[in-house]
From TrEMBL, chain A:
It catalyses: H(+)(in) = H(+)(out). One of its GO terms (cellular component) is proton-transporting ATP synthase complex. The keyword Ion transport applies. This is ATP synthase subunit a. The gene is ATP6. The chain crosses the membrane at residues 6-31, 67-86, 98-117, 191-222. It is found in: Mitochondrion inner membrane.
From TrEMBL, chain B:
It comes from Homo sapiens (Human). Its main location: mitochondrion. Belongs to the ATPase F chain family. This is ATP synthase F(0) complex subunit f, mitochondrial. The lineage of its organism: Eukaryota, Metazoa, Chordata, Craniata, Vertebrata. It is found in: Mitochondrion inner membrane. The gene is ATP5MF.
Length: 226, 98
């Protein structure tokens, strides 16, 4: 049972070649582009959603921060579609792999920080010491603030991985519990099945929320540094 | 499948027909017809592009496209992932002895 539980998180391979690349490349097929003003229903819906989220997300940035808008909007679309596709049965979710989330988090965070250090070095260094701290506490607080800065990319990546992985694992476990109880005791099967339905709704929400949180935090780091 | 070359994103593009269509090829000529196909990387990419636009123009790029245009794609994705994970799933069959 232990081997089966984590088997869905193994990156799929065809004869040793990573098929995970193909699976990561699948979401763009669902988001077509168009060169016309009036499009079919799919493109219209997607464009409306993207306009809604991008306006909301980029409202707080200044002109320099808005140069990142393409990156952030594509990030939230990618994470949201990948997480939602992972809720389909038997599918592989690339965002459960820590390697991929680290690959997304570290360059974005590093880009924001380095941009802050290059342009406004005094403002960037001022983040390390909050205002109004008593003088004896200053060395310790600088260390703490440095640690909290350096841990941001790790936290971004691990947060996304852990949330999605935990949700998928819970669904597997409760699903197999439902199957096992169906032969033993029918009313408790119905209770467990209701729990499964609630969990699925939660997972849909989590998929979207995690995308949002990831992108929001990256944009916050950007805001600090522009 | 029509033997066309070139980008085929909408139906008003005129493309030269390279060879006979598959349904017109006689059974004895089938191996030579298969060998005449373009198997270079750009040929394979062109085949995927034609297939994508064929599906897209038939089901999604229409005036009243329904949800089935995209759910068919998702159903194929589920079947594809199932075939990948069959190797692990076959141990979970309901048998007395595994």
């Amino acid at each position: 049972m232990n081997e089966n539980l984590f088997a869905s998180f193994i990156a799929p391979t065809i004869l040793g070649l990573p098929a995970a690349v193909l699976i990561i490349l699948f979401p763009p097929l669902l988001i077509p582009t168009s060169k016309y003003l009036i499009n079919n229903r799919l493109i219209t819906t997607q464009q409306w959603l993207i306009k809604l989220t991008s306006k909301q997300m980029m409202a707080m940035h200044n002109t320099k921060g808005r140069t990142w808008s393409l990156m952030l909007v594509s990030l939230i679309i990618f994470i949201a579609t990948t997480n939602l596709l992972g809720l389909l049965p038997h599918s592989f979710t690339p965002t459960t792999q820590l390697s991929m989330n680290l690959a997304m988090a570290i360059p974005l965070w590093a880009g924001a920080v380095i941009m802050g250090f290059r342009s406004k070095i005094k403002n960037a260094l001022a983040h390390f010491l909050p205002q109004g701290t008593p003088t004896p506490l200053i060395p310790m607080l600088v260390i703490i603030e440095t640690t909290s800065l350096l841990i941001q990319p790790m936290a971004l990546a691990v947060r996304l991985t852990a949330n999605i992985t935990a949700g998928h694992l819970l669904m597997h476990l409760i699903g197999s519990a439902t199957l096992a109880m169906s032969t033993i005791n029918l009313p408790s099967t119905l209770i467990i099945f209701t729990i499964l339905i609630l969990l699925t709704i939660l997972e849909i929400a989590v998929a979207l929320i995690q995308a949002y949180v990831f992108t929001l935090l990256v944009s916050l780091y950007l805001h600090d540094n522009t | 499948m029509a033997s066309v070359v070139g980008i085929f994103s909408h139906s008003s593009v005129s493309v030269p027909v390279k060879d006979k269509k598959l349904l017109e090829v006689k059974l004895g000529e089938l191996p030579s017809w298969i060998l005449m196909r373009d198997f270079s990387p750009s040929g394979i990419f062109g085949a995927f592009q034609r297939g994508y636009y064929r599906y897209y123009n038939k089901y999604i790029n229409v005036k009243k496209g329904s949800i089935s245009g995209i759910t068919m794609v998702l159903a194929c994705y589920v079947l594809f992932s199932y075939s990948f994970s069959y190797k692990h799933l076959k141990h979970e069959r309901l048998r007395k002895y595994h």
